[in-house]
Design a protein that fits this description.
The chain has 179 residues and is mainly alpha-helical. The chain has 4 helices and no strands. The chain is elongated.
Length: 179
């Protein structure tokens, strides 16, 4: 009876919705989303550091221009030149320190992606497999309640019915137009 199929389907869908899906979400969140979010959380810090390095490079160029200006303006005044040289040295030190740090840390960040993405992807695949296996198991109950189709001869009956409908479609005038 159709009511039996509907009831079985509704029960299977409810079981999937209330049991399998929450389990999937919990495992997926813990093994995929959280590790990836933690890894991606480092990216803005690196972006800030790269922007800071660019700003320090601009400051260094500005200090060098100022030193050149001081040297060409009055070579007799050593205090202005000395101050400009100190500014250049300070800007150079700041830029080089940050640059060395980024050169050392960016490859580490890139290499750690493997240690995050590989296990997360594996967990994702295994979690999906478990979810779909559970869903298939729940839907098997519905399939058991469906009337049996019969043996291999049923395919020929279905093929015959399809061919009959197709011949009716072919006999329509619209199908015989040469466009």
């Amino acid at each position: 009876r159709p009511q039996d199929y509907q009831t079985a389907y509704r029960q299977a869908a409810t079981t999937i919705s209330q049991t399998s899906h929450p389990q999937f979400n919990e495992i997926y969140t813990r093994t995929v989303l959280q590790p990836m979010a933690q890894y991606c959380g480092y990216l803005p810090e690196f972006e800030k550091a790269i922007k800071k390095r660019k700003q320090l490079a601009d400051d260094l160029e500005k200090a060098r221009r100022q030193l050149s200006k001081e040297q060409s303006k009055s070579p007799e005044d050593p205090s202005g030149i000395e101050r400009a040289e100190q500014d250049v040295q300070y800007a150079e030190d700041a830029h080089n320190t940050l640059n060395r740090t980024l050169i050392a840390e960016i490859p580490k960040l890139i290499n750690t992606r493997v240690y995050v993405t590989d296990p997360s992807f594996e967990a994702f695949v295994k979690t999906q497999l478990q979810f779909f296996s559970d869903s298939l198991q729940n839907m098997a109950v519905v399939q058991q309640r469906l009337p049996s189709v019969g043996g291999p001869g049923d395919d020929s009956v279905l093929d015959e019915r399809i061919e009959n409908v197709m011949s009716q479609v072919r006999s329509l005038n619209i199908c015989t137009l040469n466009v």
